[in-house]
Amino acid sequence: MEAERRGAPVPVRPGELPASRTEPDGTTVVRLLSYNVRSLRDDTEALVRIVRACAPDIVCVQEAPRFFRWRKHAARLARRTDLTYVTGGATAAGPMILASLRAHVEHTEDVLLPRTPGLHQRGLALARLRFGPASGGLSPVRIGVVSFHLSLQAAERRRQALALRERAAALAAGTSGVLAAGDVNERAGGRTFRLLGQAPEGQPGAGLRDAWASAPWGAEHTSTPREPVQRIDAVFATEGVEVLGAGVPRGLPGVTEGDLVAATDHLPVLAALRVRPGD
Asked: pTM (2 decimals)?
């Protein structure tokens, strides 16, 4: 465990992180991948191998293509990874959501956050996804999802974290839980992580818990791929979501250490989460 917390590579044993499934009572286990893809400027073939090997139900992308023919590039990435485009990209200033055919898309929204002059435009990609058929008298599982990429500038980052927290709390209405994932641009344990973990006033249980802190798995550090020394990317979940494991996947079948270095300038974060049907 100490090696994991230092971010040292830890081989992934087959079956160690739970696979996607729907349990007899309707409870759903989903695999969520968070990945900063640097506008697909690096080794796309390696990136595709990594995403496919992670077998995610949901992918929260940061730095998705935003300029010339960005929709074409987003659609191609989704197609090559056996996923579908949900929302985001240029319309959210970079964050994007992809999902497997297991997810039914009920609602999407792209939000541009207030911009500080001289700094990059930032935004949020939001979706409400339904898992499991409403059969046998069982309720489906509805999950709110937010993909984000916060500012490099500390004061703006804190304002964006508060906006993210408010949006996630609003998305929680009518869902069994909310998952938020992205590039925090701050080391784990910093002020932004603490802000996200606090529930908005009058909304107990709506705080976003750091999945790695709840159930560490794999390796911790996400930056930089060649010599990871810090965790600035994370998956968060509201109180009603059980975190089964979260961290940087290593030893994935068909993926080499060279792939993880070549694909982009961040390492991915993969999480398995159990969500129970709402009332």
From this structure: 0.93
pLDDT < 70 positions in the chain: 1-15, 133-136, 202, 204-205, 279
Instruction: For 145-176, write each residue's pLDDT tens digit.
Output: 999 999 999 999 999 999 999 999 999 988 99
Write the pLDDT tens digit of every residue in 19-32.
Answer: 999 998 889 999 99
* Residue position matching structure tokens 């304002």: 159
Q: pLDDT at position 206, please?
A: 72
Question: 204: exposed, middle or buried (C-beta count within 10 Å: 0-12, 13-18, 19+)?
Answer: exposed
CA 230 distance to own-chain centroid: 17
